[in-house]
Amino acid sequence: VLDADSPHTSPRAANGKPHSALPPQARERLQKCLMSNILFRALSTEALEVVYDAMFERSYQSGDSIIRQHDEGDNFYVIDSGICNVFVESEDHPEPMMMTNLGPGSSFGELALMYGTPRAATVKAATDVNVWGLDRDTFRRILLRQTIRKRRMYEDFLKHVPLFEHLTDYERLTIADALEPCSFKDQDVAIKEGSYGDSFYVIVSGTMKVTQSHNGTQMELNVLGQKDFVGEMSLMFNQPCVATVTAMGPVQCVKLDRNSFIQLLGPLEEILTRNMKTYASVPKES
C-alpha cells in the first residue's frame, strides 16, 4: 500500500491540478459520503463541484497506517467505508494510546493542512477501509477560511461548557465545525413535550424554563442558563421529548442537528447518560 501522504496518491492533470474521472456510481458514492460530513454541508454547489473533481479514492487493509503522527501532511481524508482508530503518543505516554475510532462520513487530517504543523495523530485502518482524499491546495482554497472562522468563534466558549470540558481539543473543534447559531424570542418554544426533537441546544445567553405536564398542569422542573444544554434525550433514544423548553426573554443558542449529534455522540455519550438521572425521579403524568 502506498504511503497515503505521498505525492503519488493524488492524481494530477497536465496543468498540475488534481483531477478525477470518476464513473457515475463512484461519484454518487463520493457525494453521499461528503454530505454526511460536517465540513462540507455549508459549501455552495460550485465549491462542491471543485471538491468532487479534486478528490481521489484510496483503499487500505486492516492494520495499515493512513497518516502517521509527526509526519508532514499533504492530504485530508473522509472515510467512505470501514473503521479507523486514532492513536496519539506524548511525553507522558510514549507508547501510542488509542483515543477514538472513526466510521463512515468521519474525516481526519485537517489540522496539519490548516496550521502547517506535523500530523498530530496516527490513524490506522481497524478494518479494511476505503477513503476519499483531498490535496492540501484544494482544502486550503475551499475549506480553510470557513473552518478556521467557525472554530475560532466557538472554541473558547466550548472550553467553558461543563459538558465539553473533558473532551480533547480535537473533539471540541470537531463539535465547533457542526454548530449552528439560533435564537428565540420571549415565550418561544424550543422543545415541546411529546414531540420528536430534531436538535440539541447549548445556551449561549439568556434563560429557558423546563416544564412537564403532570395531572393536567404544567410543573416547572428547572430554569436553564448560559452553558446549559437541552434536547439530548430525544435524539439519543429517538423518543418523544419528556418536557417543554420555553424561552424566558431573548435567548441565543448554538445547536447540533440530529445527524451531526449522532455522528459526534461517541465522546459525549457517557456524560449525557449520567445527566439522564436528573429526570429519573420526576413524576410522570398518570
From TrEMBL:
One MF annotation (Gene Ontology) recorded for this entry: cAMP binding
Record-linked InterPro entries: cAMP-dep_PK_reg_su-like (IPR050503), cAMP_dep_PK_reg_su (IPR012198), cNMP-bd_CS (IPR018488), cNMP-bd_dom (IPR000595), cNMP-bd_dom_sf (IPR018490), RmlC-like_jellyroll (IPR014710)
Top-rank taxon, per record: Eukaryota
Boundaries of every Cyclic nucleotide-binding domain copy: 39-160, 163-282
Start and end residues of each stretch annotated as Disordered: 1-23
Recorded family membership: Belongs to the cAMP-dependent kinase regulatory chain family.
UniProt-recorded name of the protein: Cyclic nucleotide-binding domain-containing protein
